[in-house]
Amino acid sequence: MADRPQVLIVEDEPVVLKVAGMALAAHGIGYREATDVPAAAALLDSTSFQVVLTDLKLPGQSGFEMLKLAQELSPSPQVVLITGYATIDNALLSFERGSFDFIPKPFDVEELVSVVTRALRFARRREAALQVPEDRYFLGRHSWAQLDPDGTATVGVAETIAGQMGQLDAIDYQESREHAVQGQCICQLASVDGLNHRVWAPLSGRIIALNSDLAGDLDLINRDPFASGWLARVIPTSLEKELPNLRQRHDSASS
Amino acid sequence: MKSRIGAQLILAVALISVAVFALLSFILITGQRRSLISQMKRHSTQHIETIRSSTRYAMMHNQREELTEIINDIGLQPAISKVRILNKDGEIVYSPDRLERGHRVNMEAEACFGCHGTPIPRERLAEEDWSRFFSDEDGNPYLGIISPIHNESSCAEADCHAHPATQTVLGVLDVTVSLEGVQEEMAASRNKAILLTALTIFSTSIIGLVLFHNRVGRPVTELALATRRVADGDLTTALEATRHDELGDLQRSFNEMTRRLAETQTQLYQSNKMASVGRLAAGIAHEINNPLTGVLTFSSLLLRQAEQGTEMHEGLETIVSETKRCREIVKELLDFSRQVPPHKTDLDLNEVVERALDIVDHQFTVNNITVTRGLAESLPLVRADGNKMGQVLLNLLVNAADAIEEGAGEVFVGTDVKEADGRSFVEIKVADNGRGIPTSDQSQIFEPFFTTKETGTGLGLAVVWGIVSEHAGTISVSSKPARGTTFTVRIPTAASLEKAGEDG
C-alpha cells in the first residue's frame, strides 16, 4: 500500500514539505510532493490521488486554485488545506469552497495524520455515505447545528468525521472553555489508533449541555452522528451573523 | 491686541462723550442764554417803566431841573450805560452826559428803525419791540430799550403848554444796558461744561481701561498664551475658570476642548500603536509558523520513536508541549492583530455581563471567589458586538480573579446609566479586592505586551482597550495596591449615538 501514492502534498516551504512527508510515511501513507501549482497539476494528470494536502499560500497562487483544479477531476480527490493561521475566515472559506478540512499551522504529526487518515477513509467509502437530514445547518461537511425551538442549538459532527475515525477512545472538550467559537475547536475525539480528531464548532455559543449518552457509548458519534451521536447543546451568541456562513443541504450524501 | 482693542474702546467712549456733552451743553447754554436775556428784557422794561413813572411828575410840571437830576441819578447805576430822553425831532434833551445834550441823533440809526423804518413814523410800538441788541465798536454787547413818551391830556393841558394836543408822541426814553455780565456768565457756563466733559472722558477712560484690562485684557492674554501652549503640544494646559460671564464660558470651553484633544490624542496614539503592533505580530506569526511546524512535527515524530521513560523521551515531550505553548501565543497574537470589524447589534449589556459571569462561574467557585452583582434593573440598548463585549467582560473578570491572591476574594460587577458631556453611557464596573496595580504601572496596563502575570502575553487589556474604542467607549482604571482594582467601561447608548449622528 505504502508504495502506491495516495496523497499529493503541495507545499513551497521545504521544512513543512519534509515533515509532512515524514509524518505520512511514518503512518504508511504513500505520497508525492509538489512545490507549486503547475507541478501539482502535472502530477494530478498522471496519477490518481485520493487526497490533496495543499498549503493555502503557494508561490504566486493560492491553495484555493489547487482545490478548484482537484474538483475538476473525476473522481475528484479530497482536498485538505494547510492554512497559515487558524482564523474563522480561513475555516469558513475553505469549507465553503468544498475542501474536506483545514489544518492550521503549526501542526503536530497527529493533527496532520488524523485529518489525512479521515480524508483517505472518506475517499474510499464514499459510496456508503450517510443520509443527511435537511433541517441542519452545515459547516462544510464537517459539523452541523440544529436550531431548537427553545432558542438553543444542538451541535454534532457530519460525514467527514463520523465513520472516518475508527473506534473512539475519548472525547475532550477542554479546549473550548465551555464556550464554543465558530470555526474553532469545540472538542477533540481520540480514536484507538492514537489519532486525535479536532472538531470545528459550527456556531459560537455558550455550552449548556453535553451528550451524556456518549459516556456509555462513544461510538454513537460514528454510528448515528445526526441524532443520538450529538455533541453539545449551546445557546448561540451571534446566530444572526454566523448563520449565513452555514448552509442547509437538500441533496443526500456527499457531493 | 489687548491695548489696541482697549484704545479703540476708550476712543469711542471719548468721542461719544464729547458729542453728547457738546450737544447737551449747546442746548443748555442756549436755553440759559435765552432765559437770561428775556429776564434782562423784563428787568429793563420794568426799569424803563420805573424811570418813566419817576420822571412823570417832573415832566408834568415841566420841572426840567428835577428831571435832569433824576436822569443823572439813573445814569449812575452800574448796569445802565446810557439813559437819555429825546424829543420828537431826535434831539437829546436829557442825558447824564452833558456833551450829548442838544445833539441830534441820526434818525436813520438802527435804534430808531423800529418806528422810523416806515415813511410815516409809527406812533405806537409793541412792548416787545422796545428792545434790541447791539454791540459797540469794541464788540461789547448792549441791550437798548426805547420807550416812546406819548402825549397825554394832562400834558397838553399843562400850564407850560409845551406840547400841543395834536402831537401824539412827545419824545423817546432811550436806555442802554450793558450785557457784559450776561456774556461772562455764559462763558463761565461754557467753560464749566468743557471742564465737566474733559473730567468725564478722563475718568471713564481710566475706569474703562482698568476694567477692560482686568475683565477682558488679562483673561484674553491668558487664553492666547494657553492657546500657544496647546499649539506647542502641551495638552495639560488648563485655565482657571472661576468667572460666570462669557469669558468664563470661553475659558471653560477652552478647557473642555483641551481635555478632549488630549483624550483624542491618547486614543490616536494607542490606536496607532495597536495597529503597528498588530502588523508586527501578524508578520512575526506568519514567519514563525513554518519553523514552528518543523519543530512540532519533527519532535512529535521523534517522540514516537523514543523509548518511554528515557531522558530522550522526556526531553522531546517538553519540546512538543513548549512548542504547542508557542503556538497558543502566536494564535493569541494573531487574534489580537486581526482587525475583524465589529458586528454591532442593539445589545443589552446586562445580558452580556450575565453570560460572561456564567462562563467564569466555575473558575470563580474553584478559586473561592464571591461575585456580587450590582446590575441596573434595566439598561438602555447599546450598539455593540456581543462577542467582543463578552470578551471585554471575560478578560476583565479573569484579570480580577488573577489579581486575587490566596484566600477568599470578592469581585463586584455592576452596570449603570451615566450622563456625561450631554451623552448617555452604559457603565460597567468590574472591581476586585486583589493586590491592586502599582501606581507606576497604571499608565501602561493597556499597552500591548505589558504584563505582570507569570503566564500571559500581555494582550488581554490591550484587546479590551481596542474593543472598547471600537465601540466609541472609554475605559479607565482606579487601583490601590493591596486594596483592589476597579475597571470602568463606558459604552455610549444607541440613542445617544443616533442623536450625535443627527447633530453631526
Which terms summarize this structure?
heterodimer, A: Rossmann fold, OB fold (Dihydrolipoamide Acetyltransferase, E2P), 2 domains, five-stranded parallel beta sheet, 8 helices, 16 strands, globular, B: alpha+beta, five-stranded antiparallel beta sheet, five-stranded mixed beta sheet, rod-shaped
Question: What features would you describe in this structure?
Answer:
The complex is a heterodimer of chains A (255) and B (504). Chain A has eight helices and 16 strands. With 255 residues, chain A is α/β, with parallel strands linked by helices. Chain A folds into two domains: 7-125, 3-Layer(aba) Sandwich (Rossmann fold); 137-254, RNA polymerase II/Efflux pump adaptor protein, barrel-sandwich hybrid domain (OB fold (Dihydrolipoamide Acetyltransferase, E2P), Beta Barrel). In chain A, the strands form four sheets. In chain A, strands 8-9-10-16-15-12 form a six-stranded antiparallel beta sheet. In chain A, strands 2-1-3-6-7 form a five-stranded parallel beta sheet, with helices on both faces. The mean pLDDT of chain A is 86. In chain A, α1 (14-26) crosses α5 and α2 (37-46) runs parallel beside α3 (63-71). Helices cover 27% and strands 27% of the residues of chain A. With 504 residues, chain B is an alpha+beta fold. In chain B, β9 and β10 form a beta hairpin. In chain B, α1 (2-60) packs antiparallel against α2 (64-76), α5 packs parallel to α6 (246-305) and α9 (386-403) packs antiparallel against α11. Chain B is rod-shaped and about 180 Å long. The two termini of chain B are 34 Å apart. The mean pLDDT of chain B is 83. Classes of the chains: A alpha/beta (255), B alpha+beta (504). The interface between A and B is medium-sized, with 29 and 32 residues.
